[in-house]
Structures
1.
Amino acid sequence: MKTFPIGGIHPSDNKQWSKDRPIEVMELPDQVAIPMIQHIGAPSTPIVKKGDKVLTGQLIGQAVGFVSANIHSPISGTVTSVDVYPNGQGQRRMMVVIKREGDEWMEDIDRTPDIKRDCKLTPAEIIAKVKDAGIVGLGGAQFPTHVKLSVPDGQKAEILIINGVECEPYLTSDYRNMLERGEMILVGVEILMRAISVQRAVIGIEANKPAAVELLKALITKGGYKGIEVQTLQTRYPQGGEKQLIAAVTGRQIAPPPALPISVGAVVCNVSTTIAVYEAVQKNKPLIERVVTVTGKELKETHNFLMRFGIPASHLLERAGGLPEGDVKLLNGGPMMGRAVVDITAPIIKGCSGITVISGKDTPRGVEGACIKCAKCVSACPMGLEPYLLSKLARLQKWDMAEEHNTVDCIECGCCSYTCPSNLPLLDYIRIGKQTVMTNIRARAAANNKK
Amino acid sequence: MATRLFAAPSPHIHGGESTRRIMGDVVLALIPALAVSAYVLGWRALMITAVAIASCVLFEFLIQRFLLKGRTTIGDLSAVVTGMLLAFNLPVGIPWWIVIIGALVAIGIGKMTFGGLGCNPFNPALTGRIFLLIAYPVQMTDWTTGVPAAVQSPTMFDSMSGATSMDAMSGATALPMVKENPELAGNVNFGDMLFGQMNGSMGEICALALILGGIYLLWRKVITWHIPVAVLGTMAIFAACVGLGEGGSLVYELPIFHLLAGGALLGAFFMATDYSTSPMTHKGMIIYGVGIGVITMVIRLWGAYPEGMSFAIFIMNAATPLINKYCKPKRFGTK
């Protein structure tokens, strides 16, 4: 069975808690807070002010520049504030706060549930619609999708890869989407193939989701979808990483940074993002909602909610029976790459595929020992790096040496820290090293530009 | 009880691996060999092993607690492993006070001088053993004291008593015996070597027990196949090539003899695979293993010592930093 070439780990997938919970539509909140940055790139500019009436799906944040994304109101009502508030990590973000009045949608949005397959738009028209709808990668990276689809001059896309891997433990939102909204995914794939002018698309799904593989295969046959195939991949973390997935599916490895997927002829798009593309292009619907998993083994109930953005995490947790007692980590995302949330009233945004609750005893930070040079981190690193060395160099502040040893290649998957028998916080230090080195590289580039 | 939210960077889960578990696995993997040596050599084998373990742990504790005035880490069981391996490299008749000196050198000089676990450039147990071999050559190559007559009796094995110690200077074990008397080579009984009726250092008397332990370590992913296969494969190929050159008649050049005799298996599975003294990448591990195999065979066939495993591992330990420098893992996206 296909998989990526080097490294990787096999954490318990813990998907049993929520994988059989069908998607439920979350009731509308009384109020939402919409951060003006929910993507990689420049923050959007709010184009509404306090007191403005907005409709569901109305543009409220305008993208600034190419690498940026539009932001739409997920509910209808009155803007009560445009100000800076802390997000889930306590970082200050410009947010538009809207008080709900009913649920009145923009008129041009098609809200019927019928699948609309026919699409005659040109690639440029499709990309424009994706851009207008504010679509970003819903797998977690939040990279603006229209940028990905805009193949630079002189380069050619050969294959579209749809990421249905969901290798992150606990999360099941992509899985439920594949099971319940498969038709939308396949039409979305056709549209994406059209947008980047390729004849072949591969949906990569790990072997621990056989139901999704079977269902999508059956839908492809039934619907006569040409050029779309489903590829079962060996279950192995971090297969959902873009570079790992491309290597697993095509056998081609993207060169070290700053090379992009298009350099090996691939464009990768997550299954949930594909649904958003379908809705934007065929239904005129901007990205205002997504499926979010609420999971954890201590929770009374687990859910997969189809919910509007801007709802606080606390609402989801209430539906799950509240947080368990004692020490708890609340994660935006899963346990490998998710970020700890310190403010449960902060809003859920585009990149949040799930809220995972882990009790203190299941998320230990053991006592640090000495590095015993067991090389487990070297074997586990999917980028072919030497985590023990990069971590040590960062600890010693040897930034030049960290750069020489390619610390910027790190994808922060956490395999190294996961495997370390001495409980060394390898990734914590590598992150510091990577950020410092990247700052240094940018400073050098800026200095060279001046000359 | 209230809910308390706390935060830390990802990853938020850990695989559960610990130094203590790894070392515990090594101890478990050594138990079969210890059991056979206790069965064949008697209670003294257990006594010597106990002395070695106790003194290694005690010295580590005393040095960390009173000399370095820091946290003690004897709970990670690495000193237990060093003690066991040291004992396994000694003849059963060794006086107990020599064992204690060996432990002091192993832990004090071999390990703590360099900063403790993970920082030592040379395998501590080997450091202790090589020191003893040079300081107490007579006691270290005495293969009769404490050894039951059945095992050392030449008649039982047709003038061959089985195996050897790792670098024995003289004695009644297989490697030196055959080295000095090639005509005896035809009498080597491989079955006895395999099932524990061979004389030699305590841990080496039963090849099968060592292989079992090695397989356990592989199964538990404590070690990878690279070092043992490179060491043993190189030795076998080396012996076969020399054997071909000599017409293939001498048992001494038979690959199987070299793999079963002396410290080959103990060295390949348990000593050469020591984490801090072996390379970090699979490619480096293979170079390191091949180096050990070649040096061992050169010493065995043409050197002054009948066995060269200890020295070979020691020399390649010294080469490990260099191997680490030049054998980098393959960077993703590069040819």
2.
Amino acid sequence: MGLKTSTLPFNERIAAAAQDQFAHASIAKAQDTQYDKREKARAELGHWQDWRKLGQSIRQHVLQYLPDYLEEFSDNVEKRGGHVFFAQTTEEANHFILDVIKQQNGHHVVKSKSMVTAELDLDKKLQALPDVSVLETDLAEFILQEDDWDEPSHIVFPAIHKDRNQVHTIFQKLGYTGDNDPKHMARFARQYLRERFLEADIGITGCNFAIADSGIINLDTNEGNADLADSIPATQIVVMGMERLVPSMKEAEIMDNLLARSAVGQKLTTYVTFEGQQSVGESDGPANFYVVILDNQRSQALGTEFQEILQCIRCGACLNVCPVYRQIGGHGYGSLYPGPVGAVLSPILGGYEQFGELPFASSLCAACTETCPVLIPLHNLLIKHREVETDRLKMMHGFTDLQMKMVGKGTASPFMFNTILRFKHLGLAPWTHQRPMSVTNFFAYGGAMITNGPGMVSGWTDVRDLPAPPKHQDDFRVWFKQHKQQRGDTK
Amino acid sequence: MKVSIFTTCMMDLISPQVGKDMVEVLERLGCTVDVPEKQICCGQPTFNSGYVEASWPVMHNQIDALAAIDCDYIVCSAGSCTAIMKEYPTLLADDPTDPNGQYMAQAKILAAKMYEFSQFIWRVLGIADCGAELTTVATYHRSCHMTRLLGERETPFWLLENVKGLEVRQLAGIQYCCGFGGTFSVKESAISELMVTAKVSHAEATGAAVLISCDPGCLMNIGGRFNRLGKPIKIMHLAEVLNQNVDERRIRKVSEVPTPAPAPFP
Amino acid sequence: MTIQNREPFLDRLAQRLGQPRHQLSEHPYQQLNDLPQQTLSTKTPAELLTIARKNSEALPVTFHEVSLAALPQLLTDYVAYQGGGPLLLPTTEQFVNYQLTAWQTAIAAKQQVNYWRPDADRATNLKAAEIANISISFADFLLAESGTITVSSHPGQGRALHFLPTHYLSIVPRSRIVARSTQAIAWYQQEQAADRLTSSAIHFITGPSNSGDIEMQLVTGVHGPLDVTYVVVAD
């Protein structure tokens, strides 16, 4: 489906996510597992804060000189005998890729995990070709493909929302007769995928980092599927976002270390590969090496307050710490890029009309900012989006907008605020009721509760009770004046 | 030592008791306390909702109000509000309505004086035991802004360790937000509900009778959900705890107690 | 046309960034700190060996240290333990360097042995890799910090040699144990700059292939070898 993964409105997606008990439990378990692994891996490395700064400095430098690095990289791919296609839009990218497959007379496409190809909705396009088969070879993406192309829900663990029984059912349709042990099912997938790898003539891979000074790419995987996809077929098509450059292998190595520890809590991923166009005398690897460099609105962030989001290395750590992601999962966001990074990136790539709700789907707890290995101030960027939508694009309307503006006025004027303090108790009286209290010392104001408040307050009272505000005579400031008098202050 | 109380709109609107307890604790520890009159709010409700233009006057009022009274320190009952006031100098860099930078200059002075209640007691006053006694089992909810934006992970735990009779049990999932998030709780109430419900479950699982925090907003949120579900709990701000059954003879300085362990949780 | 649409694409980016292109030569990247170089830099070779073993075994990898003299027997035992051939071996001078030429002859007498041949085509070499029960490679480095061996492809040692066989063994000299990936990368960069390395693929391999994609339960042997053995040879 490309960037947008759901046609349901936001509130319906949230409701659906709230109902999905399994996804809920499995995401919580995954977050907790990754929490321990990630923090341990970072602690072992030591000086984590300085490593983050190092990673940030590399990524910021590359973005600052992105045109130069892209030029250098493409020159070097060409020198090695490869091809580079710069695609401003998904249509251009897809058109080029399909053309290459046709030119190379490709029939069997194997893909390793690539978020950018999902952005292109490339699988659908490939399926539409006559005489071309396409297979996702990352275990999770293979599972999703065989489940009628279910949407991914995480950028590192795409099938995180499925349990072993669901996978079992999917594999049974492929002829699997074993039990639901993940190890047995993984072996079945190995056998099944191996046969198709061996007949593949086109390999499509993503790219963790493109090495500017040598025209090769860097891939990080644990399964080894990317390595088969770049070894066996005679043609490799690399699809990458335009920002994924590093100056040289030296900086790639630093990023690989940050990525593995942040994404999966390992020192390095099992396979860290630097590869490109086959060299003279070699018999495997791509004889035909193509790189597609995609903009697809990324450049909208360049030179703006959102530029830092392009530092992202897709480790998924911000998803793994996010309390909102924990509750609504990847599908709740309705974007290929969920979680905090997705809430920042999706409106840039897909516009505010489609993804305008996502920046508000955050409590701004800053867990994302705290964990990001390249120091992207994610929660601040969410506020920036809110500012753009509210102040610049004037997308907020109606009663809520009016109330927020009144909050602004009321909290800026001591006179108005004083008036509010005087009348808050009485003003909310129509919505205030005596009701049983299970909570004691609920700001010490007896049993008076607001349970179905007016205006914006209803958002609060839909979910929880609100203690009625104190009478003016009980306010802190009134008490303090008396206290000062008792204390003997002259004023 | 002259201390101004940064009241917060929460304290004015909902939780006056927290202010009273703060004042009593601080005076007991030797501070001369005052409350700047014209202060209202740090500006987060509008700023974090994207109403940035509307937030500049709120911040300006806050700066004017707090700067109006001479003081050595400004102490706040909420980690979140403390954190944003420490961020004022960064935020005001984008303020088009402060062309001469006069608010920026004041904001820097105020930010340097600004402390959250628990960190002020431990790190500035150097007091480890306020002489309080509360015989119960409690759990502590850590607010996200106090932990991550203010960077204070330790002082509430250290102060609670020295409350006589108090057993503090670790809250599972302590790193996860309770779902308050200011206007988030209102605007995205469906998501907020899931988050606060999870927090209620974790708090219940500790078996604690009391839930303590340093942020009244979180307490109002978690307490409100407890009450909606009809589940029992007592909620207390740390200032209330430190003002319970105080015996001044028990007051101890940081130098008089064993050095506590670093941040007990992530 | 080997590069398409580049100039308008890059001009647009430069415009967004608000600065002209071709600034980089005057502003090369300066590494912010030397953490990559400093990490584990004070360890002695003996300590690095200990760290390498510990981290490799944790992966899990079967880890052996042998003398040059004991290497042939170890390999023979390994082949027997893994159930014999077909074997896939690289075509390389390393067999001479490690004094394994006699072993090559001996093992070929008992097992089916195929070589990754510089003169063979893609299909032939891939077939040899596909049917191989065991492959043996010669590694350039062993990284202590992560328990990683690094290998570079050449006409006699293709990429798939490391990935298609069921069991995988890699031989590395003790003198090539380095602290971490930093040192290995520095060497590869130096060799490339001097045109001594023309490899199109450098692989850092850290234990057996694995996946946590089903319920985050880690399973080994998804696409690549099911198990991995490192042999450190005293030199």
3.
Amino acid sequence: MKPPEAAASAAAGRQSPAPPPVLEARGVSKHFPGVVALDDVSFTLEAGETHALVGENGAGKSTLIKVLTGVHRPDGGELRLSGQEVHFARPFEAQQAGISTIYQEVNLVPLLSVARNVFLGREPRNRFRLIDFPRMNSEAAALLDGFGVRVDPRRPLHTLGVGAQQMVALARAVSVNAQVVVMDEPTSSLEPREVETLFGVIADLRRQGIAVVYVSHRMDELYRVCDRVTVLRDGRHIHTGDLAELDRMQLVSMMLGREITEVRRHGVTSFSQEGHDVERRPVLKAEGLARRHQLDGISLNLHPGEVLGLGGLLGSGRSETAKALAGALTLDAGKISIDGSVQRRHSSASAIRAGISLLPEDRKAEGVVPGLSVRENIVLAALPRLSRAGIVSRGRQDRIVEIFMKRLRIKASSPEQKVGELSGGNQQKVLLARWLCLEPKVLLLDEPTRGIDVGAKAEVQALIDELAQQGLAVLLISSDIEELIEGADRILVLRSGASAGELTGDQVTEGALLEALADHSPAAPEAGTTENAGEEAAR
Amino acid sequence: MTTTQPAATAERPLSKSRAPAWFQEYGVYAAVATLLVFNAFFTEHFLTVDNLRTQLIQVAPIVIVALGMALVIGTEGVDLSVGSAMALSAALLPLYLGYGLVPALFIALLAGAAVGAVNGTLVSVVGLQPIVATLALFVGGRGIALVVADGQLKQITNPDVLALGTGSFLGVPLVVLIAGVLTLAVAFLVQRTTFGRQVVAIGGNRSAAALAGLPVKRVLTGVYVLCGVLAALAGILATARLTASDPSSLGNLMELSAITAVVVGGTPLSGGSIRVLGTVAGALLMQLLTATLVKHNLPDSTAQMAQAVIIIIAVYVARERRSR
């Protein structure tokens, strides 16, 4: 770990005498109930640089941005703007001080005109102190022209495409005399042409001496536009330095917290070390799954008795793939077949009927119904099967609930306790029970052990192993490298919504996975994976 | 995850004082009981069979509408069009009495189902917000009713219909009996049927329900249809009671009375929980409160203010329930 001061002086060395950094956070901490989001994090931003801020989920990127832009007040540490200590009570104060933010999701007023959005809160006035619409519209048009957006500025914002809206947000951010522009995943909804325009704008900003904080998961973009990088992990500062001095592999291993030189394999998780007996005929076959901005022709096969790991960094399309397989995401193209029969209707209900179950990533938003009891949450998806003439059999419910509470060791005061009162691990087990009681053929697990305690984590991992041994086909998504390596028989690596390689057999190691994630040489296609590779080439 | 607690605290947390929890659960029943006891001592001729009979007959239509409203509110929705559905069924009833009682009742109830189907489709398929979707028929439904009835108040002379309003079975007025049976039926529906459990789950977490393969659109539409049918039934009974079909004023402000009953009964507006018996108690509480104040020669305005206080208390208590 390099001390931040050293990095700062290195970057400042180009000019002399060294001016203070335009924005600086010193030893910033932020706690939320039960979570340390930022722990003594320092961050310096020089005038005119484009600074990448990277890290996986829970690294603290969003919290740091929110501290810098006045959304959160830090619990400890200080913020300095051009050397002066500042305290932002509200986001507005940060904006006044010259820090503009473009959020991942556009935060403009959809029903107001494009020009009103650009000038919201600082509209040009005429001599009656009323908004000078002609001037505002012509200025907005001129401004947007520089961003490659040629639209009538009187149009309501919502009639524009998402990419164009993003550009309007950018134009607004830049035109408020910003010294610092924070961009949070700015390209996630942009077309390639719009991305080029964005990069052009960033180059202009650099020439004007405006600093940019650039948050993205897309390695290509980072290396194209960023000068320096700061890596966060688990709320701590890991590294700050020139991006050109790091290769992708080093960057990824810093983000994930793995040492490249020391790739261990000693059973940290509760998976057994042996592979599973995999049948040769796939139970699930997906071909060319595509969806705008998210999936770009993903194909995969899943065999009974196998755990297929889905690797990839944040935003690579792992969750989207799982959701698409479970019928919960509409696709622009692609074919999914189960046991050889092509799925015609694409809905959660039909996927469940065909034997596919998805344990969603966001347990709270998409999984549990917090106000209902453990029993009701477990039987939720199975209700029609437990009913006769629309009346639910309490006896059959209780039997199933008893079996699964025992088998998964769900700790609750009774089956009637509300799920919202349980710990995260027990909530997760309740959801697993919900899916297992449907006796699925294919189980899609999206981050099954995230945010649950160590004991529950080990139990869930052992369960995944057991289920595969019983002949279930399991798709495992995990940001935990060890979990993926030790849990999966084979790993499909995704990047930008497309398959970027596959690791099988002896290739399933941390080193190979890190390399594939970092986009070095994708793992060589082997016999048995030629299907996927062939389709890759055909596209 | 903010819900993460140590596994050891799987027991229901007792740190919160028990009084609010108790009050959330039984407050509305206690309030009804308190009111009855108060009247037993301080109000003359209150706890008489005649008076209680009158109170129950008056509250029955509200209870029937509120049962449907409770289902809708359980899905995080609201139905403003119940009063118009009552008016529409009242307007249609006399037109078809020539074909006999059963066809006329069927047509009137069908009108309620149609109103509900439109509401449900707007909410679940088109994706409008319930308050806006049902506002359309809140306004338009009564208009249709007036067109159907030619804008006129029609006397009802059919003895079968009149018997619905005045008849009784084993001393219990038919209207009250119907409301009672429906209460049990809806309670059973919510507690024991696939449909009822799906309604509650959709209200509790719609995206989780959808991912679990529940037929979200069908269930939502069904809930609004049920609410419409119950409102139409209330319209028929109220018409029978009035001995006249009055589409211009029947069911005015009924949506507010029904929502009040549901909320006072402890069903949270945020969905995911339906208290059927609580809803009945909520309707009773408002009815008895007004009756008590009127019997003590206080003006209507006092009753309205007292009701306002009850509503605020109920919403406050429900909010506590939510934040737990």
4.
Amino acid sequence: MTEPTPRIVIAGAGHAGGSAAAILRQLGWKDGISLIGEEPLPPYERPPLSKAWLKGEADAESLALRPMAFYNDADIDLRLNTTVRRIDPVAKAVTLSDGDTLHYTYLILATGSRARRIPLPGIDLDNVLELRTAADADKLKAILGAGKRLAIVGGGYIGLEAAASARALGAEATIVEREPRVLARVACELLSNFFQDFHRSQGVAIELNAGVEALEGADGNVTGIRLADGRVIPCDAALIGVGAVPNEELAKDAGIACDGGIVVDLDARTSDPAIFAIGDCTKRQLPMYDRTMRLESVPNALEQAKQAASAILGRPRPAAEVPWFWSDQYDLRLQIAGIPFDATEIVVRGDIAAGKFALFHLTADGTVQAIEAVNASMEFMGGRRILQRRKKLTAARISDMSVTMQELAS
Amino acid sequence: MPKVTFIEHNGTPHTVEIAAGKTLMEAAVHNNIRGIDADCGGECACATCHVYVNAEWIAKTGLPAEGSQEASMLSFAAVTQPDSRLSCQITITPELDGLVVRMPEGQH
């Protein structure tokens, strides 16, 4: 029997998988690359789905990470509408949904995450939507418009961005949040309050501490959200945005270590040395915080794509990056650098009322752990450098606007 | 279609075609040119599509306006120079046919 030709199979053609294929070519992998994607589209940017795409300011071409011709030119075997069903780690082969079997030299799992489902009565009614894919966004777009009413379960980034887009399209939006504030899992109280106030000023209704009992419907279509206190929020569509769960089942079934995400090291390698995992599906190490966690972000997907490609090609590991995130709502640009683990103090730089400020999160010894910047790109960019250098700062210096970010970061 | 040339930090040139109306960043990403990361996809949110514009082209591309989002992002980008631009903020026009830019050592 002849050795099969070397091939890297990438399971999942989202931002992580698509970028891994491109970076492997950039770094000089000359042999086969098979990129297996469940959706009908080649790899595309997901962040605009809740923003420019909903508002009709983006099309499939502008959403695509790279034009379709790229995959042909770069000799990447892109298979759409296809999933990896099973991994045989001993034979180093994967079985695809179309029955095909592919041998791999290395396998990269980029299976992403899916919207968390909540077992509510009425969850299967028509126009009860989630927002992960372009197809989801199309369904939402089709029913948004002037005078339409969108009810949103979950006050996270997806919910807030969708509310902003709905308002831009002239639709009404109501956010129903179980916690006492929006962005409860991902932002501090000051920032939550700022976004709540801003959304309300734009006509978004926000119900806090509000449990959802059921989705009500008529003729198979959702007509409202019934809250625990008995009130009903009438709607033409309900968007459920209550977090994501990692797609780790494929790895688990193959005996790969998982722990609320596929466990990877700093080369993005799983417990099987021939198998890597990147992006939303991974439980990764964060050396600067001495922790492991799942990060759902584009920068994380790209960083791990680089890690995996570098490890496969025997190149030095890329320098560790500070985690970062962004969200655009109305004319607000939120940019977050770092994660405020163990932070005990929040220092404001700038003017919250003017909508241009940054919140610095400090530990007891003054180490800056995270910076949340609203319309303050200088603070965000300087903040990344401060975090990279693990700098300590005093509250007095941070809040003193006569001290420039260059001075703070140097 | 306008042609633009990206010169890698190690001197390797790449000349590609790009339709007017697209950005210089898209020209790099669509052709998988190494050295332009473009993490945010062209939102002027990450400063990882940083280039140096060759001197003879500066008049046509211009420099970022003082106080602009681009200027803020560039102020902390890796290894900036007076001719630094973010390629996502340069829209290709017929006048930019032949544009030459160089890439920094790294984007992170």
